[in-house]
Amino acid sequence: GLVIDGRTLNIIFQGGLEEKFLELTQHCRSVLCCRSTPLQKSMVVKLIRRQLKAMTLSIGDGANDVSMIQAADVGIGISGQEGMQAVMASDFAISRFKHLKKLLLVHGHWCYARLAKMVIYFFYKNM
């Protein structure tokens, strides 16, 4: 994993070091941005989506995470003390961070199975 702060992201984006940053993120399973602005968070997600053509997942719990959640392919909002802005902008909402495992493994599997059945049914109906 990679943990990066706002100052370092500022240096990366202003210094034209996006390619080096992408090389580093390709070796990571997850990237965690801390102490960064909402614009920096969304720029990281957009950079990963545009250059690496990877599917992105953003998890946030406050109003400062809304732009990052909207920029990602899948956005998860955590309702809590920060308010409901992240939940309103997200694709999925959970009440606590510990429910993330069940959301990804169980509901993700069910969604995949339902989508596969729908595609098969679509071909069946159109033939």
Automatic annotation (TrEMBL):
SUPFAM superfamilies: HAD-like (SSF56784)
Keywords: Magnesium, Metal-binding
Location(s), subcellular: Membrane
Organism name: Melanocharis versteri (Fan-tailed berrypecker)
Residue span, P-type ATPase C-terminal domain: 87-127
Record GO terms (molecular function): ATP binding; ATP hydrolysis activity; ATPase-coupled intramembrane lipid transporter activity; metal ion binding
GO biological process, one term: phospholipid translocation
PANTHER family assigned to the protein according to its UniProt record, in alphabetical order: PHOSPHOLIPID-TRANSPORTING ATPASE VB, PROBABLE PHOSPHOLIPID-TRANSPORTING ATPASE
Protein name, entry field: AT10B ATPase
GO cellular component, one term: plasma membrane
Primary location class: membrane
Membrane topology note: Multi-pass membrane protein
Entry-linked Pfam families: PhoLip_ATPase_C
